[in-house]
Design a protein that fits this description.
two-stranded antiparallel ribbon, globular, about 290 residues, mainly alpha, single chain, 13 helices
Length: about 290
């Protein structure tokens, strides 16, 4: 029931938040998408609100981890979306932001990177403490246990921050990041424990965001994509299996490194099955194809 509840809560809050944002002046939220159409960042704000509410409904330490991760990722994503300077837009990718910070240039993207990493470590520590709750430790084994737990916190934090960054890389076409988030969340929804409920909050928020995102009236932006990705990271960090968490972290790191060299859009365009999935549900793209 907790999984169904978190999905419903996420979808309901997403829908309500979108209606509320749309009821207010939106000039500052309008952006131009890949096809030079005007879209609103209201979708990303609503999605961040929805997935945060869904994570909060899980309860316990998992909820605390989820809220910290999604609220920070969404808030810092909004900072980047709404205050990014034109000169900062030339700095792209993880490597670009790290290089800029190393030279003393702090862009909104760089601030977002640092903030999400810090929030990810906090959320990862809470998720790790949930998994280790009740684990015995005594005598000379405590020092070793402490090292293992420290590494576990770091890897859990990396899952949260890495997922937030990776999902944002998919937000280049209508619905693409929502589809990626849903595909990542579906298997996690079947994992025992609160992580499954955090994953269903991603599914619920994504479902509510899909109509306007696919219809190209709204977009996720960094606000929505980072928040959804952070929730997926928390769900992964709560998975009991160390092997699954390690495999997921390896996949996230690999995906991030690939993105530094190869465009995801180019990869998708080269594979018919991925192209079909990418266009699935995209109303304007289908209308243009049929005309």
């Amino acid at each position: 029931m907790s999984r169904l509840r978190s999905a419903i809560v996420a979808a309901a809050w997403n829908t309500a938040a979108l209606a509320q944002v749309r009821a207010t002046p939106q000039e500052s939220l309008i952006r131009t998408n890949y096809a030079q159409r005007e879209v609103s960042l209201a979708g990303g704000i609503a999605t961040a609100v929805g997935v945060t509410a869904g994570a909060a409904s899980v309860g316990g330490r998992a909820a605390v981890a989820g809220v910290i991760a999604t609220a920070a990722a969404g808030g810092l994503g909004a900072l980047d979306d709404l205050t990014e300077k034109p000169e900062d837009r030339a700095t792209k990718g993880l490597r670009g932001h790290v290089k800029a910070m190393a030279s003393g240039q702090f862009t909104t993207g760089g601030i977002k990177l640092l903030g999400i990493t810090a929030a990810g470590l906090v959320a990862g520590a809470i998720a790790s403490s949930h998994r280790h709750a009740g684990s015995p430790g005594s005598g000379s084994g405590e020092a070793v246990s402490g090292v293992v737990k420290a590494l576990d916190v770091v890897s859990s934090g990396a899952l949260v921050a890495g997922s937030a960054n990776l999902l944002n890389l998919f937000d280049l076409r209508p619905g693409r990041a929502l589809k990626a988030a849903t595909l990542m969340a579906i298997p996690l929804a079947f994992v025992n424990g609160p992580g499954g409920a955090v994953a269903t909050s991603v599914i619920g928020a994504s479902a509510a965001a899909a109509p306007s995102d696919l219809g190209e009236s709204t977009m996720l932006g960094d606000t929505g994509a980072n928040a959804l990705g952070a929730a997926i990271g928390v769900s992964l960090a709560l998975v009991p299996s160390r092997a699954v968490r390690a495999g997921a972290l390896a996949a996230i790191v690999a995906g991030t490194l690939v993105s530094e060299r190869v465009s995801f859009s180019r990869i998708i365009a080269s594979q018919p099955a991925l192209t079909w999935l990418d266009y699935l549900g995209r109303i304007r793209a289908q209308a243009a194809t049929s005309s």
